[in-house]
Write the structure tokens for this entry.
Amino acid sequence: MRRKKKFTVKPLKEYDATRKELEAFFRGARWFDSLSKAEKEKVLDEVMRDPKNKWLIEEMRKAVIDKAALKEELLKKAKEEEKEFAKNEKAAMELVKRLEKEEEIRYRIKKDPWFLEKEFENSIIYQQLNSRGREKFIKWLEKNPHKVIELEEKKADIEDVVIDFLKETNK
């Protein structure tokens, strides 16, 4: 009695995997997508059967690896750009808030120019200004509302703001 030769399944699995890789590689190409299912099978069989096409299969595998690496690199760049955008967006929001606050202060100064009088009563230098100088000072504050914001946030001293005004007007 003759023994039947046992075939290993491994080469068949490898063949099948390579065939699926090829099909995935060709998918998306217009010439391949326009073929019928039978024609696609025929093309894949021809490519797989011909030993000269091993280089094509290797190049296809390299291209798939390169494509994956490129995709990964693009994802990294996108994440970096997203972080940069978030950072810029945060800075822009802070700028908008600051500008809104400055606009609010300008409005308050136009509506009641002497609302700051109470804050500057304690300033020795401010008290030495005559009425014309005080009017100029209020107009200067209207043009420089960031100085009022600094005062409100306690970042600047009242005397320093008045000195800045005197320096700019004496130039």
